[in-house]
User: Fold Porin from Spirosoma validum.
Amino acid sequence: MKKLFISLAWLSSSFALAQQPVNPSTQSDPVKSSTLIISGTVTTSPKPAVEKNELKYNLNESGSHFFKITFLNQAWLRYNQSNPGTTVISEPKDNTFDIGLRRTRMQLFGQISDHVYLYFQFGMNNFNYLNGGFNPNASSNRKIHAFFHDAVGEYVVWKNKDYLKIGSGLTIANGLSRFSQPSVSSIMSMDVPVFAQATVDQTDQFSRKLSLYARGQVGHLDYRVAISDPFPIQTSGSALPTYGPNSVFALKGHHKQFQGLLLWQFFDKEAHQTPGYMTGTYLGAKKVFNLEAGFITQKNAMVSVPTAADTVYQNMNLWSVASFLDMPVNKEKGTAVNAYLGYFYTDYGTNYLRFNGIMNPASGVASGYVSGTQGNAFPMFGTGSVVYGQFGYLMKRDLFGTSNGTLMSYIQVQIADYQRLSQKMGVYNVGLNYLIKGHNGKLTLDYQNRPYYEAVSGSSQLSSGGRRGQLTLQYQVFI
Assistant:
């Protein structure tokens, strides 16, 4: 690991040096200059160097062949009202305050030739004082959570055209929706709607899968289709699911997963460089309005045991339709809007339900409470349907003065109708971004209001017992 970071430091410095003009007469002077001739006198006036916003090494003179490196860090300070029964390292806790790293990533990617593209992403997620989980019966190792998220090689069939790109490797390029493959450095809200990453850390690696895919843009159509080789649930790192009347991921059998996403782009075309990743907001730099439809399907992915004599395998079938809008309101002022509305049909088999809490600040739940409901968890995934919407407004450019940034407010609504819940579930977020330097440096304050759930006597149904809140401050730095 030490050698890796030494190599990256050397690579970063090499990028910077490679972009400097090699001119013996000016190489020692970091300030570029311009020369004026006035009445026969030569006068030199300093000109500030152009500020760069990326670490990029050009492999040819035009820059069409290049290699880049990026770094992202999202640090959270969070106060959470705990769900009933929450324990933190075996002590009851009504509320928690924690500091953590939601995401820490580095990307290395580039167009190596007219037809060859390479992409890697390395990093870690959900690193707080519990390090993503707590096992009181085992020794812990807080150094094991950084891993390769992506490792993809891609072939561009037509030179300088996005008509068809074929890739394979570990990748997030998949179906269902744009939020199943989000570019997390550019999202409008503090966090993405994670339910759209349908099998996250169950049969994938933090939403990435070993896949063979084709993607491209032809006219107004943006498409991606993939065949994936899902991981068995036995390799998820969590306790194995117990067979019963409610569907779980199967412990037997292995079938390929098929998925696809189609988008019709009415105005500007969206970015198409990195495999899969879709921008959260362009902050008014583009005029984007898309309609999308996506799906994921896998044979016999789920299993339930309704009676002692029956073991029933069921297909996993997920699909969605949605609209996405991101465009300027007033170009002179720099104001813009962002909006998304989607419907998700999620069939994981009979009565499937999974609680999840993002970077959960709790380690357990007391006896007598529903398993997995500790901390900030809520029923994030389930068989049924979900309506998700978000809306944001970007205020005028340089709201606080030149180079002092601006604000973008937003709301998020997730309404789920899952089989095992006795009523519909609503999770609501409101937030405010302080865009110090666009997405490269921003502060986000987010408040979430969510329900918590209790068992219904004599039934497998769960009922909401009340609501809890969570307040989070995120500081994002990205280059």
User: Anything to note?
Assistant: Helices lie at 2-18. Residues 2-18 form the longest helix (17 residues). The mean pLDDT is 90.
